[in-house]
Amino acid sequence: MTDEIARAAEYVAEADRIFAFVGAGFSAESGVPTFRGEDGIFSDEKIAELAYVETFEREPERALKWLQEARSMMAAVEPNEGHRALARLAARDDKTVTVATQNIDGLVERAARRAGVGVGRDLAVHHIHGSMTRIVCHDCGRAVDASFDASFDASDGGDDALDLSEMPTCEHCGGLLRPDVVLFGEMLPQEAFQASVQAARSADVGLLLGTSGIVYPAADLPRQASRAGASLVEINPNPTDLSSLCDVVIRAKTGEALPQVVDGA
Ligand code: OAD
What we know:
alpha/beta, 3-stranded antiparallel sheet
């Protein structure tokens, strides 16, 4: 165990309320690609363009195909050691853990359920950039009863309840159905974001797990936590815009370092 890991474990041991701010790097060891960096999907300009709502509205077929491919990929991957460590932390009676995740893959919840942790009861998970596990109408915003959240728990990786490649439409308004994820140019889900702000402001410790911290307003959450008095621990192999805010910086993969922090706390 390094000195940084030991110090982080001490912070976590002493904390009652823990705020975990999660980014793409947290799922990297599960095989989900990050957005930025050498292997990030945004290094391909054509893909980066698909993340904008304007592209969805201009070329829905291409955008839906991309979303559907990403959704299938995410249904086929498995939680990693980092997800399992976070679930173990949430299972502890002496800690309240709240997760604000920018990830849309549902892996935090899958690891939690498998560990017998009640999502929503023992562990609050706020999806500030939406989730692939829900389907909504792009026009009227109604959710469709086609969630494959449950099938995400299946060992075979789940089956798609809705074939998005078919350009399905909303039975209420005829609008296009799509995964409930936030594209650039769209508002964040306000309920999830406000709940994350509350959790950040009342935390004793903030864990910054695998995020570059450059996309706002999400990246303001650790700043709010710090201003309100939380100690911050970053676990990331690379420096980020948030590193200078942190009390402890662990330059390692979350799947390797977080289990040591949690089990040492
Ligand atoms: P980024 O792709 O910007 O950053 C990923 C971070 O993970 C980088 O800092 C990497 O160094 C780090 N990383 C890579 N592998 C890691 C590992 N095994 N363990 C720990 N860290 C690792 O991803 P985000 O910060 O999540 O938004 O990006 C934020 C938002 O930008 C996303 O939610 C998405 C994107 O545009 C929307 O789609 C709205």
